[in-house]
Specification:
Layout lengths: L2 E5 L5 H10 L3 E6 L2 E5 L2 H10 L7 E8 L3 H9 L13 E8 L6 H20 L12 E8 L2 E7 L21 H10 L8 E3 L6 H10 L20 H13 L9 E5 L2 H13 L6 E5 L12 E6 L9 H18 L3 E7 L4 H4 L6 E7 L2 E9 L9
Parallel strand pairs: 5-6, 8-9, 8-11, 9-10, 11-12
Antiparallel strand pairs: 1-3, 1-4, 2-3, 4-7, 6-7, 12-14, 13-14
Helix pairs in contact: 2-7, 3-4, 5-6
Amino acid sequence: MPEFFAPCPRGLENLLHSDLESLGAKDVRATEGGVQFSADWEQCYRANLESRIASRILWRVKETTYRTEQDIYKAVFDLQWHRWFNVGNTIRVNTTAIRCPLKSLEFITLLVKDAVCDRFRAHCNERPSVDTLDPDVRIHVFIEDSRLMLYLDTSGDALFKRGVRQHTNIAPLRENLAAGILRLMKWQPGTPLLDPMCGSGTFLLEAAQISLNIQPGIARHFAFEKLLNFDAKTWQAMREQAIAAQLPPRPLPLYGSDLYGDALKTARRNLEEAELAECVELKQANVLEISAPAEHGMLVANLPYGERMGELEELEELYPRLGDALKKKFGGWTAYLFTADKAILKLMRLSPSKRTPLFNGAIECRLLEYKIVSGSNRKP
């Protein structure tokens, strides 16, 4: 059975582990930054189509040890690449390493590319072209100490590129991290959800798609469609089944606001292009002045840090006022604030009931849960 690795935002590995098990994957094992598993090709297609958490689904084609650059070249050259994709497909090689004793990762990337091309030349006297921007086939090289792992990417573009959010603002949140945060919140469709700093609308787009049972990969193509073992009939049936299970767009208890009109225009455009505009109520408003749109619900916000909202002094002024606004206007709600700023814990003057460490790329963040009860939870 083929073996795969699915990277994901750090902190979401257990959610992805659970998802892959529910798809029927075997030998599922979470590691830092992703999940290893075995699966048949139908399950690989389904993981690409349905996973809201994974960043990619990588097919492991080789695992070995090496000592020198020449060992790496030989390991790559020995693989029968022509059985997996055509010489007419463009390729790109990505290399990542932990504690690699060799001097240059750029040289290893070149070496792997040469070995693949030389293998094709030996087979059919032609070589594939390189396309670093939009390749048909991505080859991933991962080196840890003396271990070498080679993967073929079955996803193509990263899976957080859903094919719907085309327009972004500064410091956007990736879709799979937003989806993971909604899962950690235990938000369910039908529960009122407010994002009072919605930016380009990532949380709201994810919530609308989840509510209408729209699979995250339904609007895009995948790299496995270029592989020679691609089963078009199985894939077509899977897509048709997913489309038939979608619910028609309708007004949902999803609410977004932002202080900035440009951000709101971006969110509105994204929702319109995804044909989800009627699902979400948007308005321009200051987070400190809005009222709860329902008696109970969940509030989620990707709080500004650093460049998004200016200087530290502004944030130091914002946090206590935000704590007061939540306490006065959102009794009965649960607020989830995502931030990289540790100063918030003192300045909000509210006690979080839960703190979940997560990473936004390389930035260590916290998801803070606040159960808002009017007149309580106040720190002196």
